[in-house]
TrEMBL record:
Gene3D superfamilies: Nucleoside phosphorylase/phosphoribosyltransferase catalytic domain (3.40.1030.10), Transferase, Pyrimidine Nucleoside Phosphorylase, Chain C (1.20.970.10). Residues 96-290 form the Glycosyl transferase family domain. This is Anthranilate phosphoribosyltransferase. Keywords: Amino-acid biosynthesis, Aromatic amino acid biosynthesis, Glycosyltransferase, Transferase, Tryptophan biosynthesis. The lineage of its organism: Bacteria, Pseudomonadati, Pseudomonadota, Alphaproteobacteria, Rhodobacterales. InterPro entries: Anthranilate_Pribosyl_Tfrase (IPR005940), Glycosyl_Trfase_fam3 (IPR000312), Glycosyl_Trfase_fam3_N_dom (IPR017459), Glycosyl_Trfase_fam3_N_dom_sf (IPR036320), Nuc_phospho_transferase (IPR035902). It comes from Roseobacter cerasinus.
Length: 317
């Protein structure tokens, strides 16, 4: 009964405690099974929000969620996309993901962005196909080296928990769990957060899950997207060990990521070299470099720039 886990969290001062990783895993299994009372699910999620989730709780939830999804072929890079994008313009990071895939590293994007359709509307223009299900995702990865799998297809029960935000009126830890899902069991993952405090939480949870390589940044609108005019603090793992780095700004001058553009076709035109946008170029190259570095690619900034320049020649050919 999920009520046992609610009782652990809600006994009151001096008596309540956090869930262990094993307890969190059992609780998530119950929530995903459809057998838990909705009142108990809401109570547990809101108690966790008030207390603040621990890395052990996130790791246990994520492990159970991953075990519930259909098996997918292994990819090199896991790229979750679960931000609402309130402070981000066009999703230029999609071209970064495509660039990484074009370098020979298969990428799986997965996500849900609520009412913000910028990411999904940008997929076709970004040259990334949306999978209908796990089998379709596997075929697309073989064909293109990259695919986007919607959370509602990947894990409908987790999607239902995520959408309890509409009922509860508040974000829950399910947003973090979805980012930690890594459904294809990739050795490397890149993640964006909106609230900086989650960077270390997700890094610690990843270590508990036995991940090898992870980069978490406070990215554009909460996505894994580097702002080239700002220094960025990265948290995560390298070879399974904690890693932190501060990366300097790539450009001088203050500028917002959201430049007012909403036409997703701009992604396709930039990829083909039909328009000139140095700021978008820097976003794409900087984000791809971080992803390549997460994969262990040496001189990742130079490699990313070479890949970006080479895509012009491929377009011209």
């Amino acid at each position: 009964m999920l009520g046992e886990h609610v009782r652990i969290l809600g006994r009151g001062p001096g008596r309540s405690r956090s869930l262990t990783e094993e307890e969190a895993q059992a609780a998530m299994r119950l929530m995903l099974s459809g057998e838990a009372a909705p009142e108990a699910i809401g109570a547990l999620l809101m108690l966790l929000r008030m207390k603040g989730e621990t890395a052990e709780e996130i790791a246990g939830f994520a492990r159970a969620a991953q075990q519930s999804v259909t098996a997918l072929p292994e990819v090199d890079l896991d790229w979750p996309s679960y931000a609402a994008g309130r402070t981000r313009g066009l999703p230029w990071f999609l071209l970064s993901a495509r660039l990484v895939a074009a370098s020979g590293h298969p990428v799986l994007l997965h996500g849900w962005n609520g009412p913000d359709l910028a990411v999904r509307n940008g997929l076709a223009a970004g040259g990334i196909a949306m999978a209908r299900n796990a089998d379709d995702a596997a075929a697309l990865i073989v064909r293109d080296g990259i695919a986007y799998l919607p959370l509602e297809q990947l894990c409908p029960s987790l999607f239902a928990l995520l959408n309890l935000r509409e009922v509860l009126g508040l974000r829950s830890c399910i947003n973090t769990v979805a980012r930690m899902l890594n459904p294809a069991g990739a050795a490397a993952s890149v993640q964006g957060v909106f609230h900086p405090s989650y960077r270390l939480l997700q890094a610690d949870a990843a270590q508990l899950l036995g991940w090898r390589s992870l980069t978490v940044i406070k990215g554009g609108g909460g996505e894994f997207e580097r702002h080239p005019s700002k220094s960025v603090s990265g948290f995560g793992l390298r070879q399974g060990n904690p890693w932190q780095a501060v990366l300097p700004a790539m450009q001088s001058g203050a500028r917002r990521l959201d430049d007012g553009q909403r036409d997703a076709e701009q992604l396709a035109r930039l990829w083909r070299g039909e328009i000139h946008n140095p700021f978008a170029d820097a976003i794409i190259v900087g984000t791809a470099a971080l992803a390549l570095g997460t994969l262990g690619v040496a001189q990742s900034e130079e490699v990313a720039m070479q890949l970006w320049t080479a895509r012009h020649r491929a377009t011209a050919a």
